[in-house]
Amino acid sequence: MARIGLKNFRYSELDENEEVSTPKTLGKAIDCKVSLELNSAELYADDALAESDYTFNKGTVTITVDDDDDTVLAPLLGHEVDEETQEIIRKDTDIAPYVAFGRILTKIVGGVYKYKVEFLSKVKFKDTMPDETTKGESIEFSTVSIEGSVMKKKNGEWSKTKTFTSYDDASEYLDSLLTKTV
């Protein structure tokens, strides 16, 4: 299995019951890194490892998008967008919402394309300030990354994955994970 692509950063705000609302798109996906911190416990008996536990504790997700459109990122970071002027207002009292976050990976398995949905059940993103440089003799593209804390929901769920043979099926599945059911 070779991973050859990354698409469709999508998220949905979680309500007080940790239920999703409506999917939103973040821009074009460039990069996604997930780092996990696991609980680690080992019990040795009779001079050998007898029991072990490596369960999820928390994690970090860092995503890079092609466009740092403030009107798209502001709601994800808990900032106000003035509807009339499209001005972003940041306050020290702003609190980023908890969100569910997902993306689609393109893979080749045995010469066949597959599409894997990777979904994080509860994430809280935080502000970041990009590094900036002047244009020199050659143009260099720069992008913005934002980082979020990955955590468990009250029921212990923190992630879901599922692989499809069709991109459309993967996209529908991701939307279903991010859309409130009635």
Quick take:
By secondary structure, the protein is mainly β. The chain has one domain (2-45, 63-132, 140-178).
Annotation, overall tally of beta strands? 12
What is the average of the pLDDT values?
A: 92
Quick one: biggest sheet? 8 strands, antiparallel
SS-based class: mainly beta
Report on the architecture of this protein:
By secondary structure, this protein is mainly β. The strands form 3 sheets. Strands 1, 2, 3, 6, 9, 10, 11 and 12 form an 8-stranded antiparallel β-sheet that branches. A two-stranded antiparallel sheet has the order 4-5. A two-stranded antiparallel sheet has the order 7-8. The two termini are 37 Å apart. Strand 7 and strand 8 form a beta hairpin. The chain is globular, with a radius of gyration of 19 Å. It contains 2 helices and 12 strands, in the order E-E-E-E-E-E-H-E-E-E-E-E-E-H. The relative contact order is 0.24. The chain has one domain.
